[in-house]
Design a protein that fits this description.
heterodimer; A: alpha/beta; 5-stranded parallel sheet; 19 strands; globular; B: alpha/beta; 7-stranded mixed sheet; 31% helix
Chain lengths: 468, 201
């Protein structure tokens, strides 16, 4: 066997606790993130079996999915939401797990605060009962979502039984043009290769266009790996990564940081190492993306039109497109730029970070939200919110007519009161356009923050490259 | 978790690709803190109108499919969210097995943790099972995990692949946390040597 290894191999091999032929490996988990929706049954399982949390010191919890994004000093209106939040607080107290509560300055979407706090570090294995855990791969960590039974398994053992994943590299060549963002890149990749090409694989994103991305943008790309079917996606750490991590609260400090950087520089795919699969993607020709259907792969360029099912030969795909267009209330042949919207949501673990808000604020500065559009910005965390307010971004949004909210997952999955009404059409910076995702019979179009901001102003989708 | 050996049940066709976990169990029902009681919310927005009346044309609302225990679905079943509420809802409704050309990873894994058997069969076989379930309502399939077979009748038997370790856990109904804890000495040794197994705070 070749001694040349991929980054994925290196992290995997460093975490194997036990291997035996015919059985999955037992791998060690360095960081376990917890939120209120997928953890109560896991803690209950521990209580029933009289087990402890093995490493509460490698575990960190917050509330994000269910929290209202309005005034936090008011009581939570929905009693079931409140019960779930209260249950997590009690569980963290009972088992000694660090907890960023709803009013904590550290609260935010779990995938936003992990990196901000320096909990997310290169080379770690990171899990959470949430499919968008792949976000943390942006730092060169092996990070993936798990179900509640596995949450319980990690709480009890700090390990997981896992089969070694297959490895895939996606080489993104060229350079993203002005106005084209990481969101367009990952939507473009999924539109080209589909929503299941990553099933069974961990993806390493490579190439000059990837190296040029900021940490925020890398997180956007890795975040949506799950929308390609891959449980994890990662990017080798480099100077951009190290600069982001320096002085983060839980990252190593001082000399320890410098020696960590030396170790982190080893976290790269060796020249000549082989992957199970290789794909290429051309960044140069990418145009801003908009989804038109009910699966993240149903996307197109802003210069395209809504597809016609009659043009599709594969019967399964044709049927999917028919159902999607029916649900979305769209007519084949309609130019993307003629699709009118009712709502705009800027936020989520995909695009709720400071750079995302800066990019949206740049677009709306001095402009007004279209009179028929209801638009809101939900920062990914209190740190993002506070930073945005220091920069005056909130004033730009509020002056333009956006609502400026408290942090949480909000309308990405609409578990809290932020929900689309039936038939409402939304330009959303989130990650899923599934039927009912943002509210029953709500219609979601996935776009970048700049595209969402421009749509808010115009009242319909526009090409950000020519929007002034 | 209940052990799974052999199961005989009615097949229900759900002929769509990319059925995501938001469709299987919409988010408004994820707020419970128990593992049980989710069956009433399964495929909620397909099963019920906005004013909570059953959609009469939806397959699981019509006899005999309302008694189905085997779901036959399109490719990439269970994509999207990692919510284990999806297999909990399927199980609580009565499903013991799901047959599809492919499954999303996290959902596939979650099924085994709950005693549901996800079975991958080729596109054309799934298509013919879908057709059979549609044209002969109430058709019973036999699923034999030991033999790794889906048995339609005496002449028609399909063999499926399943990971040997997962098969063993399902046949025995074993708790994998208990199995992992048998290796506690190895976990402790790993922690003593590992670079990252140190407190975060």
């Amino acid at each position: 066997m070749s001694s040349k290894k991929t980054l994925i191999d290196k992290i995997w091999e460093a975490h194997v606790v036990r291997e035996k032929d015919g059985e999955p490996s037992l791998i060690y988990i360095d960081l376990h993130l917890i939120h209120e929706v997928t953890s109560p049954q896991a803690f209950e399982g521990l209580r029933i079996s009289q087990r402890k949390v093995r490493r509460p010191d490698l575990t960190f919890a917050t509330v994000d999915h269910n929290v209202p994004t309005t005034d936090r000093s008011l009581p939570i209106a929905d009693p079931i939401s409140k019960q779930q939040i209260d249950t997590l607080r009690e569980n963290c107290h009972m088992f000694g797990v660090p907890f960023a509560d709803i009013t904590s300055a550290d609260q935010g979407i779990v995938h936003v605060i992990g990196p901000e706090l320096g909990l997310t570090l290169p080379g770690k294995t990171i899990v959470c009962g949430d499919s968008h855990t792949s976000t943390h791969g942006a730092f060169g960590a092996l990070a993936f979502g798990i179900g509640t039974s596995e949450v319980e398994h990690v709480l009890a053992t700090q390990c997981l039984q896992q089969s070694r994943p297959k490895t895939m590299q996606i080489i993104v060549k060229g350079k993203l043009a002005k106005g084209i963002r990481a969101k367009d890149l990952i939507l473009g990749i999924i539109a080209k290769y589909g929503t299941a090409f990553g099933t069974g694989y961990v993806i390493e994103y490579r190439g000059e266009a990837i190296q040029a991305l900021s940490m925020e943008e890398r997180m956007t790309v890795c975040n949506m790996s799950i929308e390609a079917g891959a449980r994890a996606g990662l990017i080798a750490p480099d100077e951009t990564t190290f600069a982001y991590l320096r002085n983060r609260r839980y990252a190593p400090a001082g000399e320890e940081f410098e020696s960590a950087v030396v170790a982190w520089k080893e976290l790269c795919t060796d020249e000549g190492a082989s992957f199970d699969k290789t794909l290429e993607f051309d960044a140069d020709s990418l145009i801003p993306q908009v989804t038109w259907g009910t699966s993240p792969g149903m996307g197109a360029s802003i210069t395209d039109t809504v597809p016609n099912p009659a043009d599709i030969s594969d019967p399964v795909e044709r049927r999917s497109v028919e159902l999607a267009l029916q649900y979305m209330g769209l007519t084949p042949g309609t130019p993307m730029t003629e699709i009118k919207i009712d709502r705009v949501f800027i936020g989520s673990c995909t695009n709720g970070r400071i750079e995302d808000l800066r990019s949206a604020a740049d677009v709306v500065k001095g402009k007004k939200v279209s009179s028929h559009v209801h638009a809101m910005v939900v920062p990914g965390s209190y740190e993002v919110k506070n930073q945005a307010e220091r920069e005056g971004l909130h004033t730009i949004f509020v002056d333009a007519g956006f609502e400026w909210r408290e942090p949480g997952c909000s309308m990405c999955l609409a578990m809290n009161p932020d929900v689309l009404a039936p038939g409402e059409r939304c330009a959303s910076t989130s990650n899923r356009n599934f039927e009912g995702r943002q509210g029953r019979d709500g219609r979601t179009h996935l776009v970048s923050p700049a595209m969402a901001a421009a749509a808010a102003v115009a009242g319909h989708f526009v090409d950000i490259r020519t929007f002034a | 978790m209940d052990a799974f050996h052999k199961h005989v049940g009615i097949a229900a066709p759900l002929d769509r690709a990319n059925i995501d976990t938001d469709a299987i169990i919409p988010k408004q029902f994820l707020k419970r803190i128990e593992r049980t009681g989710f069956g009433q919310f399964l495929f909620f927005e397909w099963r019920f109108t906005p004013d909570q009346q059953p959609h009469t044309e939806f397959v699981l609302n019509t006899a005999p499919y309302d008694k189905a225990t085997i779901l036959v679905a399109g490719p990439n079943f269970g994509c999207g969210s990692s919510r284990e509420h999806a297999p909990w809802a399927l199980l609580d409704f009565g499903f013991k097995a799901i047959i599809a050309p492919s499954f999303a990873d996290i959902f596939y894994n979650n099924c085994f943790k709950n005693g549901i058997l996800p079975i991958v069969l080729a596109d054309d076989i799934v298509a013919s099972l879908t057709e059979l379930a549609k044209t002969k309502p109430g058709t019973e399939l036999t699923i034999d995990l030991e033999q790794q077979q889906v048995i339609v009748d005496d002449k028609t038997v399909y063999t499926f692949e399943v990971d040997a370790y997962r098969k063993m856990l399902l046949l025995e109904g074993l708790d994998d946390i208990g199995l992992s804890l048998q290796h506690e000495a190895l976990i402790t040794k790993y922690e003593q040597d590992a670079p990252f197994a140190r407190p975060i705070a």
